Amino acid sequence: MLKSIWRIGSKSIETINLVTILFGIIMLSFIWGGLFMKVQSERQLDINDAMQDTANYAHTFAEHTARTIRGLDEVVKALKYQAEKEGLALDLPGLVQSKRFEGQPFVALAILNETGDLVASSNIPAGPTSAKDRDAFRVHQLEDSGALYIEKPMPGRIVEKMAIHLSRRINKADGSFGGVAVVAVDPYYFAEFYKQIHLGDQSNIALIGLDGILRVRQSGDDIKMGLDFSQALVMKLVTESKTGSFLSTGFLDSFTRINSYRVMADYPLIVVVGVAEEYILRNFNARVTTYYWVCTLVSIVNVGFVWMLLASIRQRKQAEERLAEQGAFLGNLVTALPIPVYYKDCEGRFLGVNKAFEVLHGVTNQEMIGKTGSYIVPPELDEKFQEKDQAVLRGQGVQIYESWLPDASGTRRNVVFHKAAFTDTHGAIRGVIGAILDVTERKELEKKLLVEATTDGLTGLLNRRHFLQRCAEELERMERYGGSAVMLVFDIDHFKKVNDSFGHAAGDSALQHLAAVCRQTLRDSDLLGRIGGEEFTAFLVECNLDSGLDVAERLRRTVEDMVTLAADGTQIQFTISIGAVKTHRGDTVMALLAEADKAMYQAKQKGRNRVVAAGRKKA
User: Fold this and answer.
1) How far, in whole angstroms, is CA 263 from its chain's centroid?
2) pLDDT digit string (tens) for 385-436?
3) How many CB atoms lie within 10 A of CB 387?
4) Which of 269, 272, 402, 576 has the fewest CB atoms within 10 Å around its CB?
5) Among residues 471, 593, 455, 580, which one has the least CA distance to residue 519?
6) Do 195 and 218 form a contact (C-beta atoms < 8 A)?
7) Mean pLDDT value of segment 345-363
8) Rounded to an integer, what distance in angstroms lies between the CA atom of residue 28 and that of residue 35?
9) d(C-alpha 242, C-alpha 207), whole Å
10) How far is it, in rounded angstroms, from Cα 53 to Cα 47?
11) HSE-up of 45 (CA within 13 Å, CB side)?
């Protein structure tokens, strides 16, 4: 039955090993081709990563440049607005000193009139200055575009250094051209920001206008500006896409770089970030050297590996055959076991059962395969079994518990389950294996022994030991929660005469009849026992002395009126003498029994067939 447990995965072992051998044989032919593909793949991955990094940098620099230009544009707009409102002759030095534009990276502010002459400046020029020949003036003179104009880097006529001029048109009240507001920015401001991030040797960052003129380019300590980049590859690419990456030789030098560009959304500028290919691939080149050494070593090892694998297959096959023999032996052993054994998968479906299981439930192994426990037991019982199975599958160890099962005839059988998980050859849990021990006869025997240990064999009443134990428990309960009880001790008057006159069988019958009358007279909650030959005792719980004496008197009269037949049909009548005692706090069973027994003998001394209460004082 269980052979499949021990052979899980065994059929695939030889196939896997044969495939591995074939792989080892052809691996030498493909190993260098694989190396070539790996080298190309890793090179491309490094380049792709670099393109992603440069694209991120381009985005970052573009955002920084845009924020800077927006801030400067706010300054230009402020100059334009104030000039249109107050006139062109603004106090720009005073405006600068007022710190109104603090934090903005301009080097000069200027106002040009409608003829291009400088009429206001934050810096004092060497003499009369005109900018009518500059693009920053002429573009606004020709038309009112309403947009900010960013001029290519030009030598400043106020600060006498290269500057990028940002300008806006100033209109007269009638809307005609009235002049230009200009802010001059040092290109080195952008270059210095770019230098803060080290992208490696021979990297560069460039800000190029859509007009093809370089605003600023930083590569190491080399800073360029104002050059014509209209023939650069990036100027062609921006006509196809606003962002992108490419690999090319530098426009100004011979270094091959991985470049990413981004056209700024609000301004006619392109940010280009380039990282030298040699710098990016420096770690890759080191790895490639290692790869060649490793592949050489692997080629040597490959031959030895194939030889060792052939030996391993032979050993594995021998081990598998031994394992199959062991599995067959264990399978036959389990099948022959006289106790029911079964195993299930992790979903609770039966995978197999042994002969004893088939006999217990009246099913066959083939019939049970694929079924769940609800096929043979009530659903609520199967649910309980499934909970225990899941505990096993969760790794909570062997589960041993008592339950019941209906057998093939529907008879309820008391059983003990032993359940454990079984695994495959890799150690993974594959299901639950269980054994069922039928303990019905043992339970019946235990019940019988318990009855014999606690009851009187003749009358069926509690025997002396068990009666005293139950009384002690009741006294403990009353001590804790309060209440009272009455103990009665009684026996048959002149019982020896009954035995002598009618025989012991008649005496036994008299005792049995007395026990039956006691059961009918007393409550189910009262304790009733036979503590000696013809001596009986009763413990009336939750009862005061008056009520107890009434019960005792009723019992006495019932016995007095009772007739018992001897074996020869002779009628036998007898009476009983009863002693009664009420419990007090601190009483013990033996003390109560002694006082009640004393009271019973007083009843006998007074003529028998009567009830006498013990004359004790309350504690």
Assistant:
1) 47
2) 888 888 888 887 788 888 888 888 888 888 888 888 888 878 888 899 988 8
3) 10
4) 402
5) 455
6) yes
7) 89
8) 11
9) 14
10) 10
11) 8
- Cα–Cα distance, 169 to 608 (Å, whole number): 140
Tokens at residue 140, please? 């606004």
The number of C-alpha atoms within 13 Å of 214 and in the hemisphere containing its C-beta is: 21
pLDDT band at 242 (very low <50, low <70, confident <90, very high): very high
Q: Which segments of 147-224 does DSSP mark as H helices, in order?
A: 187-195
Q: CA–CA separation, 119 vs 99, rounded Å?
A: 21
Residues facing residue 538 across a β-bridge: 488, 528
Token duo for residue 61: 């620099």
Distances (CA, A) of 375 to 364, 369, 390, 404, 413: 12, 11, 19, 15, 17
Q: Considering only CA atoms, which of 423, 422, 344 is closest in space to residue 385?
A: 344
d(CA 311, CA 313) in angstroms, rounded, equals: 5
Written as one letter, the residue type at 394 is R
With a pLDDT cut of 90, the percent of the chain lying above it is 28
Q: Facing residues of 245 across strands?
A: 260
Is there a contact between 189 and 175 (Cβ–Cβ < 8 Å)? Answer: no
DSSP one-letter string for 458-521: TT-SB-HHHHHHHHHHHHHHHHHH---EEEEEEEETTHHHHHHHH-HHHHHHHHHHHHHHHHHH
Read off the tokens for 450.
């318990």
CA distance linking residue 41 with residue 39, whole number of Å: 5
Angle between helices 464-481 and 589-605 (to 10 degrees): 110
Residue type, 377: V
